Amino acid sequence: MDENKSIGRQIQGALMTGVSYMLPFVVAGGIYIALGFLLGGYDIPSTIAQGGNFASTTFWIGKIGLDTFMVPIMAGFVAYGIADKPGIAPGMFGGWLALDPWGAAANGLNYGPSGFIGGIVAGLLAGYIVNLLKKIPLSGMLRSLLTTLIIPLVGVGAVCYLMFYIVGAPLAALNAALTSFLAGLGQGSKILLGIVQGCMLAFDMGGTVNKIAYAFAVGMLADATAPGDAACMPMGANFVACCTPPLGIALAVILANVLGKKKFTAEERSTGSITGCFVGAACMITEFAIPYAVADPFRVIPSLMAGSAVGAVLAYIMNVGIIAPHGGVFVIFFACSSIIGYFIALIAGSLVTAACLLALKKDVEDEAVVEDEDGWA
Description:
Number of helices: 16
Strand content: under 5%
Radius of gyration: 22 Å
Shape: globular
Order of helices and strands: HHHHHHHHHHHHHHHH
Largest sheet: none
Distance between the termini: 34 Å
Number of domains: 2
């Protein structure tokens, strides 16, 4: 970690690190869950013993990624982004506790699952606690024990005790309150829920706000038995709103090139960047939009939020329900109640994002001129 950076920059970088390392677990887990549904039907969790047949095995492999690894991995690598390798173990321990693995809430204790919010806090706590431990003045043989014994032992204990006895319960209450707020919107207005959900999903593209909205939709799936159920509609909106940002950016870059507008840099216009955005849209990986958002956040993020909000609203209006928790276009054709509605909502939202980007973004400077002025041409 660069200690010359502001705290805000440090935290932002750590969160991005955590998300990037977590992403493969989410993608693999979501697709295996969807494949399990495809092979064995949507009632696998309730009618077939774990590993009872190949479809069930496939489904529960996917659950490892989403239910077991996702939050601890994210927390461990948030801590890594702050404190390097020594932060990983304390961060992962704290992230695991954020899932309430002991069922403390069910046993009447003042604790509960805090999900992504808890995982992020655990990772940040671990990172900064480990950085403090690194500064313990030791010499000789004791110094060699710092990273192999002292930091793991003290760091894990400090993070876990803080999580369980002090910050865990408030974080669980906050997580539950946010989820209840979204559920309450769903009962009153699908349009309002779509706007809120779409904006949350596009705001930080895989970060805390995004994951709160995602967790809400995953929680609703617990009551679903088929894609057409009302409980599947929030996940349908999630799919659309998460796929819209990268697709909207790709369309904006292509349209800017066709119209001769210099809205994007050479790197942003590169085949690799555009291809990455199309892949992100197909795989429901919003994070492919992050480089564009980081480069121009005050114009790009509102554009992404507008498109995702429109897409999510249309998904609700057209009753797009999806019973798989992840997987993008790979699960649409067997886990979606309205394939046509899904693509209409996705394309409409993406076009809104593209239009906003073309309208809001300023022209970039001529890169050849910049190179001449710097003496590199």
